[in-house]
Amino acid sequence: MSTPHAETRPVVPRAFGAAVTGAVLAYGAVLFFTWVEHHDARACEATEGLCWTWWDWAAVPVTLTAALTVLMIVYGRLGIGPRLAVVLPTVVLGVFPLAAAETTAGWWAAALAGGAWSCALALAAWDRYRIPGLSAAAALLLASLVVLYR
After folding, report:
1. CA dihedral 121, 126, 127, 128 (to 10 degrees)
2. Cα–Cα distance, 29 to 32 (Å, whole number)
3. How far apart are CA 116 and CA 18, in angstroms?
4. Cα–Cα separations (whole angstroms), residue 54 to 43, 67, 83, 144
5. What is the overall mean pLDDT for the chain?
6. What is the CA radius of gyration of the chain?
7. At what angle do helices 11-43 and 107-123 cross, to 10 degrees?
8. What is the pLDDT of residue 29?
9. Cis peptide before 82 (omega within 30 of 0)
10. Which residues are CB-contacts of 15 (< 8 A; sequence separation ≥ 6)?
11. Distance (Å, rounded) from C-alpha 49 to C-alpha 38?
12. Helices of type H across the chain
């Protein structure tokens, strides 16, 4: 880690904690968006034209706010920092690996991609693991963009 004092806690459990958090958040996001889709189908079944519900407008902001809040709290407890430098790319760019995994293989692949993405970017918080972490994140991002836009 980039702190002036020596870090005494091992990195592997903290990276594993970040991976589990990312997987749980990805699974929760997939379930939430599925619920919103079913809710909209029930609410708009009598409408022939365009139909939007409150959940259509609130789904993305609610998901991003929940993910940011959970990641900031969990990363603070795990000692992963600087949190804003790690959390924002995790949430903002994490949409691509999750969407690619969910469209190709379903919710379980989205959960695995969320865990891998969170772990890779969490590893980038430590100087020693910055290159492997950013390389893994870049490979995941590139692979997901290839899957989405092929």
Report:
1. -100
2. 5
3. 9
4. 11, 20, 31, 30
5. 90
6. 17
7. 140
8. 95
9. yes
10. 119, 122, 123, 129
11. 17
12. 11-43, 54-78, 83-92, 95-105, 107-123, 130-149
CA end-to-end distance (rounded Å), the chain:
37
Tokens 């709290």 belong to residue: 73
What residue type is assigned to position 79 of the chain?
A: G
Can you tell me the distance from the alpha carbon of 42 to that of 40, in angstroms, rounded to the nearest whole number? Answer: 5
Give the span between the Cα atoms of 32 and 142, in whole angstroms: 26
* pLDDT (tens digit per residue) in 61-119: 999 999 999 999 999 999 988 777 888 899 999 999 999 999 999 999 999 999 999 99
Question: Packing angle between helix 11-43 and helix 54-78, nearest 10 degrees?
Answer: 170
Going by pLDDT thresholds of 50, 70 and 90, the confidence category of residue 4 is: very low
Q: What tokens appear for 69 in the block?
A: 């809040």
pLDDT at res. 6: 52
